[in-house]
Amino acid sequence: MNSLKHEINLEPEHWAQMEADVSAKEPEEACGIVAGLANRSSMVIPVTNMLHSPNKFRMEPAEELNAFYIAEREGLEIIAIYHSHPHGMGEPSITDFTELTFPGIIYLIWYKDSIKWQCRGFLMDKSHKKCEIQVIITME
């Protein structure tokens, strides 16, 4: 589990990969895993939403497990779980809290404003507490 929780640093290609995934899977919620070290992304692994729902997601178990194996093989941590809210809610939903699977991991929530996809990061817990995390696109 990641230890630096005040921000997440995403490489531009990882931001673009997630944005392409959420766009391609609209109107369903897209989901996946971000792996890296010290809250800096090293890879994005899209995972199928087995519910194929516009309002909730559940990662396909075999793909999710494979993503964990890939990250471990590469010596990386799971630093974030991403998913989309295709109907524009830019914060955790009640469903996100009640079905929270990985407390302590940053959740990146993609949402669509009137023009394009945006992303916000949160730490959440089962008691419906949330803390927004700064999402930084690295330019180095």
Pairing-aware structural class of the strands and helices?
A: alpha/beta
Give the overall shape.
Answer: globular
The CATH architecture term is 3-Layer(aba) Sandwich
- CATH topology tier name: Cytidine Deaminase, domain 2
The number of helical segments is 3
Distance from N terminus to C terminus (CA atoms, Å) equals: 25 Å
Low confidence ranges: none
Domain tally? 1
**Spatial strand arrangement across the major sheet:** 1-7-6-5-4-2-3
For the sheet with most strands, the description reads: 7 strands, mixed
- Give, in order, the helices and strands: EHEEHEHEEE
The rounded Rg comes to 14 Å
CATH class: Alpha Beta
Name the assembly state. single chain
Percentage of β-strand residues: 35-45%
CATH superfamily: Cytidine Deaminase, domain 2
Mean pLDDT comes to 93
Roughly how much helix do the residues carry, as a percent range? 10-25%
Number of strands: 7
Quickly list its features:
140 residues, alpha/beta, Cytidine Deaminase, domain 2, 7-stranded mixed beta sheet, 7 strands, globular
